[in-house]
Structures are given as C-alpha cells and as structure tokens.
Amino acid sequence: MRQTEQILGGIEGLDTAEEQVTVSVPIRERCKDLILTDEVIAELMRRIARDVEKGLGKDTHKEAVIKCFITYVQDLPNGTERGEFLALDLGGTNFRVLLIHLGQNHFDMQSKIYAIPQSIMIGSGEQLFDHIAECLANFMKEHDVYSHKLPLGFTFSFPLQQLGLTKGLLETWTKGFKCSGVVGNDVVQLLKDAIKRRGDIQVSVVALLNDTTGTLINCAFQKTDCRIGLIVGTGCNVCYVEKTENCELFDGDVNAKPDCIVNTEWGAFGSDGSLDIVITEYDREIDENSINAGKQLFEKMISGMYMGELVRLALVRFTKDKLLFGGQGSDFLFKRGNFFTKFVSEIESDKRGSFINCREVLGELGLAHATEQDCANVRYICECVSRRAAHLVSAGIAVLINKMKEPSLTVGVDGSVYRFHPHFHDLMVEKIKQLILPGIKFDLMLSEDGSGRGAALVAAVACREN
C-alpha cells in the first residue's frame, strides 16, 4: 500500500478539459466520459503499478497482463562504439534497412524505406521474412557492402518473449499483422533462415530489440540519464531500466550487471477489465471491429492506429443524435477508417477562433455544410480524445518514474502521434509533473529515429569491448 501511495506521487490538482465558450452544452456533456478525473487517474496508476510488479514476478508473470519482458540489453552507449553496423526495423506498415558508420568524431547513417504489402502482412511468416531478406540484400548491393560480413541489430516491434539478446519468441501479432507460423517461434531464427535461403549475403544478428528499447538506447547515446523509451505512434509501448535483481525471470547471473532494460508491452493493459472504469462505447466498437478483439485495449485508447477512428465514431454518434451537422452526415463520415489520425492533429493545429484546417477536413468528408458551431464542437471532440490519450500515457510514465526514484531522468519518445500532434508533448509534461513524486526532475526528449538508429547502436554496444 505504501509503495502504491509513493508511486501515485503528487496527484492533487489535476485539470479537466479547458473551458471553451463556443462548444455546445450537449456536446460538452456527452464528451464527459472521454475526460479522466483525478480519482480515475489515481486508480489507473495503482492498477498499472500492480500489473508491472506482476509482470516482473516469477510466480505472477504467466497471468500478468503487462508482461514486462526481459530484453537482456544491460549496457547503454558510452561513446567508445566504433565500426560499421546494419539495422533492420520492422514495426508497422513500412520496413527499413539502415547502415551506420561510427568513428571517433564521426556518425554517418544511410537508410531506405520499403513497403510491406497488405498481402504479406496477413500471409505466411516465410513470405514476410523472405521479403525482409530481399530488401536487406538489395540495400547492401546499393551501398557497396554486399560482400561485407556485418553485425546487425534487428528491431522487431511486436510483443516478444525474449530468451536472450539474440533470441525472442513472438507472443502475438499487433498493428494489423497476422502472418501465420510466427507466433511462438524465434524471429531471429526465422530471419536467419530467410537469409540462408537466399545464400548471397553474410550478416551476423547480434541483437534483437523492439522500438522502445531502440528509442531508449538512441536517446542515451545523446543524454546519459535516459532511463525510459516510449513509443506513441501506430502502436503504444514503453521500456525502462530496471534493477536486474527485480527481474525475477532473468536467465543468467543477476549480479553480473546491475541494470536491465525491461520491455513492458503495456499496450495489453486492460484486457482483464482493469480499464473498464474508462472504456467508452467508442472504445468498445473499435475493439469489436479490430482483428485482435479483447487485446491491446490500452493501446487502442492511445495510438495513432485508432485515434482518428475514435473521433469518427463520436462524430457519427452525435450526428445521428442530431447534435452535429444538423443531423446530416455523409457516406464518407459513416465509412469506417475515413477519419485519419492526421486529421486530429490538423484540426487541433488551427489557431483559437479559426477553423481553416477543420473546414478543409470536413469538406473532404462531404460535410461542407458544417456551421462554425459544428467546427468548434468537432475540435472539442478531437481535443477530448487526444487529451485522454496523453493523460493515459502520462499516468503510466509517472508510475515508472516514481518506481525508479531517480532524482533526474530523461524519457526518450518517438512515434507519429507524439511527433506530429501539436499539443501532445505539452499535455504530457503538464500531466506527468502533477503525478510524480516531489523533487524528481524529468525531460521528454524526441528520439530521432530510435527504432532504426537505436537498433544499430544496440548492435554497436553488443560488439563493444567493455
């Protein structure tokens, strides 16, 4: 109980959605279920803290919702890394190959993005890894390292049970992927098999990680006090530096090195009902129509894959209830997936009292008949959805900051929502400040290409002579 109170820190004085004169009373009333109260945030923090402890525990891990997987990444960059390193970055609808050169006062990086066709995303695992190996070979040809034997860091941003630095079993697919024959198998071995099938390139996979670990390592390369890596993009996940002695599932000598990065996979939080106190009808509909119903509920309330659709569902509901657009919607509005998350950022980028972006978005959706009142209401709905996402993330980050008790630390952050939403950073800073223990200082640092550059840096650290 005492630890929970400590983890909650300074929770008093949380704000609710700011007053906006032009928002209609019925809309404000109906959006109340999208606003998290102080009491609800406090309770969510207790539940997240409890689930993190369960994930770390040997006897409770199996039933834990927040899995807290051991990454076996125990060293952070120290500036002595040298050489040429490859990275593969698979974590969404695009896939990247990178090559970095590290010298004493020299950092050079080249990269290329490759698309992953929908047919491959839901095809066989063999197809997926053959595609990755082909991209890798083409990239190595283009950059004149085709005949080199290079160390490679592999960012694989899906829930993994990591059994070592170069071995990890896929727990479950997320973010629209459903390749057969991969769940329960070692993804490094699947990559090695695909490379071997080609027989034309030589790479040594020296590290397997996900994008949160890459983000943490990437930021630690620049700021040595970075202790948390957060992604708020297509998906949402976080990793942090834990004391090795607290990692009960650590397979090896826990006394050899004091720290170990833990990949929480907190996107799964709530699948046991822990989020029922905040789940809305829109969240339920998103979940029911997803390819992984009942899973990744926390992620579905936060990430860019779902944020636009959450707003669309609220707009549809309020239009049908004649609270928006005079009750007249459009075929575009009523079709699933048509309100992109980038629309939320664009609408919230309008200056106060101006609805230029909002009108443009509504025009694209066949809602040119929207009044100024409608625009104000639409903006408010966007704000409620994005603010809720920022506050949910902040509650989780505050739990980890309070758990680590470092006097000062940096949180490395990457992902399209954090990067492109005009207010997400500020919302997080404000909320985290209110939720952490007194006297702790923190910074949120935008990670420049954590999942790619971070993977190469993890490979560099793995090859370093300590």
Q: How would you describe the overall organization of this protein?
A:
This protein has 466 residues and is an alpha/beta fold. It contains 16 helices and 13 strands. A six-stranded mixed β-sheet has the order 1-11-10-9-12-13, sandwiched between helices. α1 packs across α13, α10 crosses α11 and α10 crosses α13. The longest helix has 33 residues.
The general outline is globular
Structural class, by secondary structure, is: alpha/beta
pLDDT below 50 for ≥5 consecutive residues: which ranges? 1-21
Radius of gyration: 23 Å
How would you briefly describe this protein structure?
The protein is of the alpha/beta class and 466 residues long.
Show the helix and strand layout.
Elements: H1 2-8, H2 25-30, H3 38-56, E1 69-70, E2 83-90, E3 94-103, E4 106-115, H4 118-121, H5 125-142, E5 149-156, E6 160-164, E7 167-170, H6 187-198, E8 202-209, H7 211-222, E9 226-232, E10 236-243, E11 259-263, H8 281-288, H9 297-300, H10 307-320, H11 341-349, H12 356-364, H13 372-404, E12 408-414, H14 416-420, H15 424-435, E13 441-446, H16 450-463
Parallel strand pairs: 2-5, 5-8, 9-12, 12-13
Antiparallel strand pairs: 1-11, 2-3, 3-4, 6-7, 9-10, 10-11
